[in-house]
Amino acid sequence: MSKQHDKAMTDLQRLLGTQDFKTEADLQKFLDGIIGQPIPSFPKEALSFQEQAQDLVFEAYELPPAKAKLNIEKALQLDSNCIEAYEFLGSMERTAEIACAFYEKGIAIGRQVFGGKYLEDHKGAFWGFHETRPFMRCMQHYSGCLYTMGKVKECVAVLEEMIELNPDDNQGVRDHLLLYLIQLDEKKKFEKYAKMFNGDSMAFPLFNRALFAFKTEGETENANKQLQKALKQNKFVAAKILSKKPITELANHYGIGDENEADYYVFFAQHIWQSTNGATSWLKKLSAKS
């Protein structure tokens, strides 16, 4: 989701907060009335310090780094618990350890703000509530930093918590979770989450399932069938996994079955395939037949 879209959603939430809807029908009528219309931004004077801080962070994404950091400093002066500000600071860092510290701070604030009764009432649908999204994004980025630092078990624990908070997994973390469970030889957990998301048919889940089948069963009929299904879905993945050249850059978008989708999977999965005993020989043999 772009930050412009996120800003528009925030403005919509603020606009809805100024209304006094008596029924769901009133809410729907109001929403129907603003379809196609720009969502108005509120003047600074009408915003709380917390809301002003959020807007400074949204603005920071459009600014050069030096000016952006000034915005973040102002935001944290207005609201020291601005999760969006820590999300931004983490995104600016190239060193995983430093980025981790910022995301950790955002997560700690989120646990405090969205704990207790809020957690009881909203657990299972966290992404559906706009205010929780910066917290959930910090968790996702944090998990990636942990993995980069070689803390695979800690990364998996964060991803599992995200699924628990939001089983619909709007952020798509399940693919990485399943891949890293293969790496950790967590058979039962893999089967648990694979069952939860058994309708997925993109390259990432299909090649994950094939690798899991091979690693746990060997070269069985089932494993072969899983791999053939994956190879049919994306013809570019096999050659990229087998290549000695790692993927270093990813496109902003990809389509089902295209080369960019293959790059996205291989970027994360190549080293796991190559470190799984016999997996690349098996992949090479079956891909030659397909």
Beta-strand portion reads: under 5%
Secondary-structure element order, as H and E?
Answer: HHHHHHHHHHHHHHHH
Mean pLDDT, to the nearest integer, reads 91
Q: Which regions contain 5 or more consecutive residues with pLDDT less than 50?
A: none
> How many alpha or pi helices?
16
Biggest sheet layout: none
Q: What is the approximate shape?
A: elongated
Radius of gyration of CA atoms, rounded to a whole number: 22 Å
Q: What helical percentage do the residues reach?
A: 55-70%
Number of DSSP E strands: 0
Assign the structural class, choosing from mainly alpha, mainly beta, alpha/beta, alpha+beta, or little secondary structure.
Answer: mainly alpha
Distance between the termini: 36 Å
Structure notes:
This protein is mainly alpha-helical and 290 residues long. It has a domain at 198-290. It has helices at 3-17, 24-33, 49-60, 65-78, 83-92, 96-113, 116-122, 133-148, 152-165, 174-183, 187-196, 203-217, 221-233, 237-242, 259-275, 279-289. The longest helix is centred in the middle third of the chain and has 18 residues, at 96-113. The mean pLDDT is 91.
Q: What would a concise description of this structure say?
A:
The protein has 16 helices and no strands.
Layout of helices and strands:
Layout: H1 3-17, H2 24-33, H3 49-60, H4 65-78, H5 83-92, H6 96-113, H7 116-122, H8 133-148, H9 152-165, H10 174-183, H11 187-196, H12 203-217, H13 221-233, H14 237-242, H15 259-275, H16 279-289
